[in-house]
Sequence to fold (337 residues):
Amino acid sequence: FLCCNRNKQSVTVNLKTPAGRDIIGRLAESSDVLVENFLPGTFDDWGLSYATLSQRNPRLVYCSITGFGQTGPRRDEPGYDIMIQALSGVMSITGEAAGPPMKLGVAISDITAGLFATNSILAALLARERTGRGDRIDTALFDSTLAWLANVGSNYLVTGQIPQRRGTEHPSIVPYQAFAAEDHSLIIAVGNDSQFVKFCGVIERPDLACDSRFQTNAARVQNRLELIPLLADILAQRPAAEWLSRLESAGVPCGPVNTIDRAFGDPQTVARDMLIEVPHPTIGPLKLAGSPFKLAAASPLPRRPPPLLGEHTASVLERVLGLTATEISELRRQQVV
Fold:
């Protein structure tokens, strides 16, 4: 709740009551966008379908986000992030080759669906500028995660070869993975043959760059099982910071494998304003990840803290629907809001 709801106002409405559903319908009359995350058919049963609300507000953009979408054999199934990661194949390609399938450390299916829904909403709003009408958007976690497979999915569709777990290895670039240094792990991303020559100089093995088994990336991919153990033995002999300093000086792409605290403590995080602090009414000073939106011509984004649940119910109902304090008090008494 804290990470997702900064700069928002919170209104609580009991949708199980006719009066609560009426409030949502009335709010939709003056809204640009409605987003709902219930099982397919739920809003229809409550009289809040797109067909109904678009009659009251033809400019409304109505977005439903569900596990599997409004159609298909899985339509009525609930969809949780870990289920979608498993069904989409993401878990099958995540983890070490000899280990079990793993889920990603963040809820990537949830987040990806939200991003695709946002893109769809923006497209619908832009189209509305031309047509004057809103639209119905059907976003599924499953669809979104399949699309997120990107080149891995395309490689399978083109070749028919089923991708396997590879840990941090890249299937077609070597060396391009994590290595354990003397103290911490680091990433080395040698993207071309000239970088490999520089890399071999840094590790004091220039002979490897002249070895026919490793001279080209294609050869290194072919002989990965011979090269990687050699590099692992060398890199394990010195601290990560020393390797990183030398590699960076030589122009070899690399980086530390940070823990979350180190990531937020990185000077780049501070320079990019990606760690902010806002005052919260109950928590006090609240640290949050900053916004990745960096628009040159736009005003800086406001820094309002995530709201308390229902914090703005009265003010929104008064401002948008014109309800009086007495009417709002009665709605509270009836547990509608």
